[in-house]
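Recall that a protein's primary structure is simply its ordered list of amino acids. Everything else, from secondary elements to tertiary packing, is in principle encoded there. The following example makes that idea concrete.
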Amino acid sequence: MGRGFLDGRWVVGFLIVVPIAVAIGASLIPRLGPHEIMRHQVGELLAGVLPQPIDWERIEVSLDPPRLTVQGVTAGVASNQEPLLRAETVALEVEEDALRRGMVELREAVIDGMVLRLEWSGEQWRWIEDELPETSAPEVASDASDPGSTPSENRNSPRWTIVRSRVWIVDRAVEPPREFEFSGVEAKVQATQDGAEISGSGSFLGGSFRGNARLSESREVTGILDVEEIDLAPFRPYAPPVSRASGLVSGTFKLDATAPSDWLAECDLALRGADLQIKDLDLKGDIQLQVTVRPTKQGRADGSFRIGASDAALDMGGVYKKPPGTPADVSGDFQVETGRKVKIGSFRLSIGSSDAGRP
């Protein structure tokens, strides 16, 4: 009888003390910080997707759900010696069993409050091509996966989510360098067996954008970008034949690339309140623009364009004029030569029943 009572007290004590001890230990983990093995694992994980060097202020650990929250993250070095990337937090949701062993096996990551700076030299992107390591497709064992799941749902293919972020693109291929800011950026990056799927949205040049893309390990890219009422003026320097440009742009851009030298880019745009001067062609009003561009074997690019100007006033060097409401169409081709020089080739101008052009 006494022995049974003694055994019962030990059982009760065990059931009470152990959970309390676990709870106290868990509450102390964020204060004490992860041990060096876990710090190394977090560093290795971030190094797989972020440019070097990588630093952070502290790591907080929670067990329900199992998550590591890395605070005050910086990564890479821009040309002005500032970090390429800053993030308020990077929350890493990890596999519970691996975490108990002091290892980090990523299930999902959320980057919050990111500020990213990308630089284009005219030949390559700083970080994307220089710093980003190549990744291989995850090996998925047939007996380790849910038979009803797709590869993108497998835990070996983590999803990265970006919220409340800003991205700056700095183009150093032009003089002076130009900066473009994307704000309110929300994005998702899902690794797949043969690459990645990307979707995102945000604000840009007073308007908004939304897009998605698929990337393969062989660098094949397909993507669609929809824009709504973005300011046209900042892009004028990229088209030397255009001496004046303003208005609001809405429409769709498409890219289909099977290799860096084999791609097709298309756009179908509506320009509201446009004011354009292209050589001798003066356009004012609402216009539609379609452009197709593809590379040539000589390292240049050929393109074609069509401008629907029925709702715009048109003046072709004082020779051909028309008010808004008169049907008008301008079409032709162009070449993008070395140094981004754009040369207009043949063109055709139709106003009502009259045609003019250059072969």
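The chain has three helices and 20 strands. Residues 1-34, 128-155 have pLDDT under 50 and may be disordered.
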